Amino acid sequence: MSRIGKAPIPVPSGVEVSISGRQVAVKGPKGALDLEVPGEITVRQDGEEILVERPDDERVNRAMHGLTRSLVNNMMVGVSEGFRKELQIVGVGYRCIAKGTDALELQLGFSHPVLVEAPDGISFEVPEPTRIIVSGPDKQVVGQVAADIRSHRKPEPYKGKGVRYLGEHVARKAGKAAK
């Protein structure tokens, strides 16, 4: 039995869960998310808990058991607390300007500014010109948007300039050796 899959998922207060067939819909103060359950996995509500079960020990069902439980749990956390990723911009002249809560203008050493639009449900905060906070209820979308912003100018190994996750370690290389 999957250690992750067999654990029940508590339903936080203020969160509504509706299960109909293969669809699981979760609605809370931060937004609403839905998921189509893969394979033969079943999801049922038992009081204030959600249980994810598999019919047998086939390889595919074992793989989907823990995955489905994690996805449903991330939905619960997302609609009640939300997810956030923090990015840091390093480099002389590199900065970010917020255009409302749904767009960013990045100055990353190119001859033009890079504009980034937020998908539905995602918001940006810029507490400093060199820090970006991406937040939203869907963990996968928050991570993808943060990765897309980082991909505009990945940290380079010689000076460490670029966009990196907060706390990310960039392996530095030595430059040319002088004779």
UniProtKB/TrEMBL annotation:
Transmembrane segments: none annotated. GO terms for molecular function: rRNA binding; structural constituent of ribosome. Coiled coil: none annotated. InterPro entries: Ribosomal_uL6-like, Ribosomal_uL6-like_a/b-dom_sf, Ribosomal_uL6_a/b-dom, Ribosomal_uL6_bac-type, Ribosomal_uL6_CS. One of its GO terms (cellular component) is cytosolic large ribosomal subunit. Signal peptide: none annotated. NCBIfam families: L6_bact. Keywords: Ribonucleoprotein, Ribosomal protein, RNA-binding, rRNA-binding. This is Large ribosomal subunit protein uL6 alpha-beta domain-containing protein. Pfam families: Ribosomal_L6. GO terms for biological process: cytoplasmic translation. It comes from marine metagenome. Residues 11-82, 90-165 form the Large ribosomal subunit protein uL6 alpha-beta domain. Belongs to the universal ribosomal protein uL6 family.
